[in-house]
Amino acid sequence: LFLQFSCFCCFQVTGVVLLAVGLWGKLMLGPYMSLVGRGSADAPYVLTATGASIVLFGLFGCLAACRGRPWMLKLYAVLLCLVFLAELIAGISGFVFRHEIKGSFLNTLSDAVLNYNGLDERSLAVDDVQRRLRCCGVLNYTSWFSSVYFPVGGVPTSCCVSLSDCSSTNLRNSSLLPTRVHGQGCYNLVTSFIETNMGIIAGVTFGIAFSQLIGMWLACCLSRLITANQYEMV
């Protein structure tokens, strides 16, 4: 009983991890969410909801183990099965449709650069990405040449290598830009990071998902053990 109880508590830890990652994604990556597709923008909410569900189900599993109710343990196993299926479907969908996600990001980022005004949410998100990642434009700084902002303000100051060398005149001078702004585009930088870490992300996701299988197996074993003991007592 102590082993099963300890395992239920461990499953709660995985729920807390997912919950923390979801909240971190919402708080820290919030400015970038306007630059990705709708489905990807909902990812922090999905992680938060899944993590909260695992924590609540873990508490229910601990209660079921303490009270020794077979029907509660079976219900706990069913709940874990639902969480496992949801995580498995989400993980497979993210891997299969990763190219569509990259395409959506490319289209959204290109549109944000094209219609940049320095004031709205997507414009501020573009500035934040360029400043943090030290990149400029979609593929490179020339992406800004077709922006509605370029004839007025040139390339945004968030592209600058050094603000002291970025006057408004220099930012509108295409011949000076290669020495004033970052040369790498933001799209390739973001997508290469995703591709590089795809294995780690997939491994952690599926590791947490398959841990639910162990929980289901333990819950079923404990339920059968309690039922057998009850028959022996009768």
Which terms summarize this structure?
Cd81 Antigen, Extracellular Domain, Chain: A, mainly alpha, 74% helix, rod-shaped, single chain, 234 residues
List the helices and strands and how they pair.
Blueprint (H helix, E strand, L loop, with lengths): L1 H27 L9 H4 L1 H25 L2 H27 L1 H17 L6 H13 L16 H4 L14 H4 L5 H4 L5 H11 L1 H36 L1
Function: May be involved in cell proliferation and cell motility.
Keywords: Glycoprotein, Membrane, Transmembrane, Transmembrane helix
Family: Belongs to the tetraspanin (TM4SF) family.
Protein described:
The protein has 234 residues and is an all-alpha fold. The chain has a single domain (68-232), classed as Tetraspanin (Cd81 Antigen, Extracellular Domain, Chain: A). Helix content is 74%, strand content 0%. It has 11 helices and no strands. The protein is rod-shaped and about 85 Å long. The mean pLDDT is 77.
